[in-house]
Fold these 4 entries.
Entry 1:
Amino acid sequence: MPTGTAFEFDAWGNSILHVEGDSHHSTTGDMENHSNGNIINDAGNNLTETVESVKNRGAII
């Protein structure tokens, strides 16, 4: 069961909710995979996100 979530915002200010274990393609075709809690942008690895555990943080980030 997912233990963490993270938000990011697109160019229009819309929030995108990530849940640990999900994956998606960005509009540039890059793949983001959340299966291990870290998201590394495949295009040059220039974007890294972290999905932190809600249990450890006590809050959703």
Note: Residues 5-57 form one domain.
Entry 2:
Amino acid sequence: MSMLLRYEARRLWTSRASVAALLGVLVLGLGAIALGVERTGQDAELVTLREQRLAEQQAHLRTSHAPDAELGLVLYYLSLPTVREPSPWTAVSTGLWDVYPGSQPLRLLGLVPQLHALEPDNPVRQLTGSFDLAFVLAFLVPLLVIGLGHDVLSGDEDLGTAFLVRAQPAPVSRLVLLRLGVRAAAVAALVLVLLGAAVVWTGSPLDARVLYAAFIGLGSVALWFLVVLLVASLRRSSAFTALTLVGVWLGSAVLVPALLNLGLSLGFPVPGGIQLTLTQRQEMNAGWDKPKRATMEPFVARRPEWASTQVPEERFSWPWYYAMHEVGDASVEAPLRAYREQLQRRNTWAEHLALVLPPVNVQLLFNRLAGTDLGAQLAYRDSVIAYHEQLKRHFYPPVFQGARHASLDYDAIPRHHFRPPEPRLFPGLVGLGLAVLALALLVPGACRRMDRAVS
């Protein structure tokens, strides 16, 4: 057996096509890591730039507005950054990072139009996705497995060496398992090299995420080699085996996900943020033509602590102006909540359906690991909503009490803080493990089928 093992290993490494395929995926994986590191570096620079711009803006406001200027006027121009900083794993799995902006300025004005700016700003990238290491591991490595293993049994018929296989004292199934084991070891080593390079290149800490990433990558390799074994056990031609395996990959990676995505879009329709923004703007702009009390009454119903605020009917006032923005937001409060819930339902169903689509499941697992999935984006969006409310609670008292610019302490202005939620990996990991186990249970039957065909 050790002689056969050495022979199969030498056969693999002397095959120019096999070595070229392994090296090709290695180069693509390293290139994907390089692109991811470059993207996250640009995002980190953007965070620094926004902080610099905030300091410059505050310095400008100090000099361009007199100390006795109305505070409401100064706050109209104040723009504060909200930041979702990339993690080291963002370079590995970009996910929705290139689709949704990771940093967004926020003002004290209406929230809904500003939330719309958190929607996808790159529809082309949303359609095509990003080229990253997760894409290589989820979609290209399975093709490598198919290329290396499709002729593991039928290749002897093609080369005219099948009689040598039948002459071996060991069962044919054992030889096939040995061949696939050698190829699986090579691909597994490649996956570990790429993940190791990613950890070193991105400076990721050696924590549980590294182990999760290794489990996901190696689990995908094991699953696809089991698929290769089961199809190869049918003992058809190499062309038939290759076409069948490519069909399985195409169905699970492209066709079925596209159909399911269409079904989810139809089953869980989500109104665009533009519709909510237009409704909010119409309600707010209508306030200019209404009596001031028509704006203040619904505002006071929401914030009774300002019931004693006196707003002049005959002229503009900043308390009325900010109240008008809040009333505009309130007009779409229920649709906005339904919008978020619908997105969450669609995401939950997508995660459940991905459990039966290994490439999609692997991709989503890496996205969750990196915090670039839709769940993380929704959590960031929720943090922006909470921060906007925090700003209103901080600034409304001085604005409604007629404070002046001199009273503004720029250093005491609340800052946005976002802590990414812990990734929900358990369902996807269990789904991947159960898929591997289910296919492994079919291996004994496949081995008996191969041995019977020879005998």
Note: The longest strand covers residues 80-83.
Entry 3:
Amino acid sequence: MRHWPAAGAGAAASATGLLRALAHEDRLLLLCQLSQEELCVSDLEARLKIYQPSLSQQLGVLRKQGLVTTRREGKHIFYRIADARALALLQVLYQQFCIQPEGDTPLAQSPEYID
């Protein structure tokens, strides 16, 4: 069995925190959108169909974890990804779950995923 040095335990705790934040579907979708561009709350709500109370709650979790940061422009609050590790992990998830080799049917379109 491999034993983690003291720094490794801290790294494991950081990784666990990041994975826990990504483990919620709405938060993952939010981060996927923010990985493409900075967006305001109303744009996120329109794109993802996540209603304001839930959207604000999930953005608050991401902000508390240091994964996103904000800036205000007039009445709008814009969000963007603030953690390079989160962006790197999103890229891996995108490659594993969103890019389909030629000829493959995306998961959302394969028969077992159609209601």
Note: Strands lie at 39-40, 68-73, 76-81.
Entry 4:
Amino acid sequence: PIAYLTGFKEFFSLPLYVDEAVLIPRPETEILVERTIHLARHVDRPVRRILDLGTGSGCIAVALAVHLPDAQIAASDISDAAIAVARRNAETHGVADRIDLRTGDLFAPWRDSEPFDVILSNPPYVAERDASSLPRNVREFEPDTALFGGADGMAIIRRIADEASEHLATDGDLMIEIAYDQASAARSALDAAGWGSIVSYRDLARHERVLHARRAARTFAIEG
């Protein structure tokens, strides 16, 4: 991939360093950033603590820190090498002091943390059974741990749906990027975990690519 050869990929108009330790940022993931910024600027409560699960290059965390100067961002990844890339990008953009980067599996580094106002993730969601259909430049070069979410691609999404409420403020928000064909399965996982209010945001191809969930008693009044 050209991004690995050049060590550069633009995301949300920010130049980022990338190497083979991290997934190359995709345009679809910018939806997570856009919607979180919109939420923070329009919701009737402060959004000061944001958690980015599976941060990879740090693209989401860095973009949010740049555009939400009052927010503190926490970000975790299972890969030490990915955390090193994310730290480099945070330092490049002058936001390292507001991004707490930790190595660990999903919520593990945050067991004793205060609740977060927003939890978001672009998790591994490719089904292992679909590995052979991936483009060669993805299958052979990008890290498996950032691509594959179990046999059906839903393993990490289910874990986030099940565990996020333990780490989220009562009036908090959960946002998850999903594959273009996972909306039904992901909604079912969120429903089963007790997330009563769910909306989706579509990509340019009109696929549902981000699910935004709240607890059952909270509805959405900030669309736009």
Note: The chain is about 30% helix and 25% strand.
